[in-house]
Amino acid sequence: MDEVKKKDNPLYSESAYDDAFRTMEGRCDDLLIPLVSHMFREKYGKSAVVKRLRNEQFVEHEDGSEEKRITDSSFEITYKDITKRYHLECESKVYSKSMLVRIFEYDTQIAKNAYEMNVHKVRFRFPNSGLLLLRFSKEAPETGIIELVMPNGKEVSYDIPMLKMSDYSIDKIFEEKLFMLIPFYIFNFEKKLPEMNQDMDQIDELLKNYEEIFNRLDNELATGSLSSASYDAIIRLTHSVAYKLTTKQENVQKKVGDVMGGKVLDLPGFRIYDEGKEEGIKEGKEEGIKEGKEEGIKAFIEDKIEDNVPADQIISKLIKRFELTEDKAREYAVKYGVKLEK
After folding, report:
1. Helix, strand or coil, per DSSP, at residue 291
2. Are 322 and 73 in contact (CB under 8 A)?
3. Do 151 and 295 fall within a single domain?
């Protein structure tokens, strides 16, 4: 099959890498939160709540014109009543210092979209920004630094942590619960692909890696560490990313595609999850409510108990955050260990 025909395949997408990252960032909280925790050294628990923000930014040029750009992600995470804003970029090109300039352009626009002001002061809050580098580069630092020199001579700076896909083995990915990296694991073999394409033993070795990944994912799903929707997303996006990266290696693409394609056939797809969620909401099914809220409510209550928050404050926060009636909030509180006064 020539390269043109491969690109005609519905599986092929010119933006496969960006699509994979944005799909997981936009739909899979249980993939996004561990990645953020790892990148920014946070300790977000199960009660952490993600709120997506708009990704369209208008970057201003020197001539006064504006250019519309789409960031890979812009979101907030609220945990223990503290909200932090984040901006992540997934980069498939080899690292260059211009990437820091682009991140700063995006950060500036994000800050402008949520400024605070009064009659004499305007305050801009910059997001926590990070960069995921898919391709190996000796030039890429562990952390980038953006420095600003103020008119009064004072300098301020902030760090841009960088995750390099080449630093992450299968074991490390699973130890750190960085399942969001799995679709990009194929990049660790990119330089070997031309040689691998001529050697079936090497292709079989690559397939063993993916068989191990899929087996371990099955276990994470079975133990509840991974949601069904996120499991589905990882498998499908791994297939899509691998298909694009191996476009010029027909033997590798066919063998890897056969394995992943067979796995995909057993998956229901996001449409099924979305329809089930909508049906549960419309019909008011108890299991739909439980799936949507109860796990978060339980983790939220456990965190508050651990922090020695008084029972009446826990009730109040439950009512506000989860839109519960007072009776329902009390019911959940008692169920998960809060001791109420009689």
Report:
1. helix
2. no
3. no
Burial class (CB in 10 A: 0-12, 13-18, 19+), 251: middle
pLDDT < 50 positions in the chain: 61, 272, 281, 284-286, 288-289
Same domain for 203 and 301, yes or no, is no
Q: How far is the C-alpha of 56 from the C-alpha of 40, rounded, in Å?
A: 24
Name the average pLDDT for the chain: 85
Domain span holding position 138: 3-266
- The two three-digit tokens of residue 19, written as one number: 């699509």
* Angle formed by the axes of helices 295-306 and 326-335, nearest 10°: 70
Q: What is the pLDDT of residue 249?
A: 94
Query: Which amino acid is located at 330 in the chain?
Result: R
CA dihedral 18, 273, 243, 187 (to 10 degrees): 50
- Provide the CA 30 distance to its chain's centre, in angstroms: 8
Residues 259 and 292 in one domain: no
DSSP state of 126: P
Q: What's the pTM value of the predicted model, to 2 decimals?
A: 0.74
* Tokens 């960088």 found at: 162
